[in-house]
Amino acid sequence: MARQDEVILEMKDVKVHFHLDEGVLKAVDGIDLRIKRGKTLGIVGESGCGKSVTSQALLRIVPKPGEVEGEIMLYRSGKGKEEGIDLIQLDPRGKEVRDIRGGEIAMIFQEPMKAFSPIHTIGNQIMEAILLHATQDKEEAYRLGVEILRKVGMSNPEQRMGEYPHQLSGGMRQRAMIAMALSCNPSILIADEPTTALDVTVQAQVLQLINDLKANNETSVIFITHDLGVIAEMSDDVAVMYLGKVVEYTDVDTLFHGPKHPYTRALLNSIPAIGRETKRLESIEGTVPFPMNLPKGCGFYSRCKQAVDGVCNIADVPLVEAAEGHYVRCLLVKTESTEPEVRA
Ligand SMILES: Nc1ncnc2c1ncn2[C@@H]1O[C@H](COP(=O)(O)OP(=O)(O)OP(=O)(O)O)[C@@H](O)[C@H]1O
């Protein structure tokens, strides 16, 4: 992880807890992440590990009874770190958050129909976003709308402006949603499983489109997926999540070639890799525990083949910089600078 990279968003010890009748559900339980200008942070993990709730926290759209704690610092372009604002301190329904959401930070979802209203044309919806964030002038908004549809590779953009979401194919709808997200030139784009519902060819086109936009506009991308292949293709840095916590965080090459956390290693062993010596694929035994009333210690303890009784299940495990820019949450991992607390 290059130290000179400009950090534009930083999450510090962010927690999202849902206070339910049955107890406290710790969907996100103290994560620290950094988003760099023009780079993609991939967030990967099994279903239920808190990926989507993390992005909801960033946009301040966590539904009730969720409560968000910690710090989410947004650093405005060209300004020093000191001039950042903490999104958690803002009123989630206030003007400032609404301006940031869909303006500086935009989101694309797995299912584009969620992002569009079925009763308004694509053009009206894109123009509405532009009028809200970029210009007051309707003609200008129309022109920008057509331009952005062209940019995301829509054929006949003028015609598309007058069409309704259901008239577009799945891939075109995805492009239209990306166009809407990009219409205000966001500095951060959150993509939550944006291609899962698409067939492979269209999936490749949409991923390429996101990469082109990132390269051309210096947009930072937070790419959320459970698919390690997509992570490898899209990310500069990767955060591996397990049970509401980041368990490993480093650059993509280090993650794939020198993973340290037993969970990351198990995830990598469970996918077929082209060019890797064929060895038996292993699935991770057991299931992710439900994030409520959890026992003390490492969240992966119950499924970890290396776990040591009396060590890993005693106290909560901190995220430690095991090597420069390589953060791991495991007591059995040796750090380069200090002696390990325990050897595996
Ligand atoms: N509105 C809510 N109320 C209560 N619990 C919730 C709510 N939203 C999410 N959760 C819980 O928070 C945990 C994390 O959910 P989240 O959707 O972030 O997981 P995920 O990693 O994105 O999973 P997937 O890959 O299946 O989308 C889960 O246990 C989920 O049941």
Describe this structure in words.
With 344 residues, the chain is an alpha/beta fold. It has helices spanning 51-59, 95-100, 112-115, 122-133, 138-151, 157-161, 170-182, 200-217, 228-234, 252-257, 262-269; strands at 7-20, 23-36, 40-44, 66-74, 85-86, 105-108, 188-192, 220-225, 237-242, 245-251, 320-323, 326-328. The strands form two sheets. Strands 6-7-8-3-9-10-12-11 form an eight-stranded mixed β-sheet, sandwiched between helices. It has a four-stranded antiparallel β-sheet with strand order 2-1-4-5, covered by helices on one side. Strand 9 and strand 10 (245-251) form a beta hairpin. Helix 4 (122-133) runs parallel beside helix 7. Bound molecules: adenosine-5'-triphosphate. Adenosine-5'-triphosphate binds at residues 18, 25, 27, 45, 47-53, 63, 66, 226, 291.
